[in-house]
Amino acid sequence: MRLLKFSGREAAVLRAIDFATGTEGGEILVKTRLEAPEAVDIINGLIDVGYIETNPPRPGHVEIPGFGETIFEVNPAFAHQLRKSLVR
Questions:
Q1: For the chain, what is the mean pLDDT?
Q2: Which of 11, 21, 24, 31 could share a disulfide with 16, CB 3.0–4.6 Å?
């Protein structure tokens, strides 16, 4: 298993997501102090590579309208590897 590398903002978003229950987009904005368009871009990139998912699943990318109410979860297939990569 190789160690994943993330930018500081990607790591902040991943740390803001509760690995057990998921986190709403609005709460991610509060925890990371990112602007909504920037957070949406980061989340869409993490969704593209499969590290996070929306609940309920949605096709395509997440948009700014409705972002605050969307629940984001860590993909269980990558949970262990992501935890190891995010250890400071």
A1: 93
A2: 31
User: pLDDT, tens digit, for every residue of 18-47?
Assistant: 999 999 999 999 999 999 999 999 999 999
Give a yes or no: residue 59 inside a domain. yes
Contact 74, 14 (CB under 8 A): yes
Residue owning tokens 């986190």: 23
Domain residues for 70? 8-86
pLDDT value of position 87: 84
Question: Backbone phi, then psi, for 72, in 5-degree steps?
Answer: -110, 135
- Residue 61 CA to residue 82 CA, distance in Å, equals 21
What CATH number is given to the structural domain containing 48? 1.10.10.10
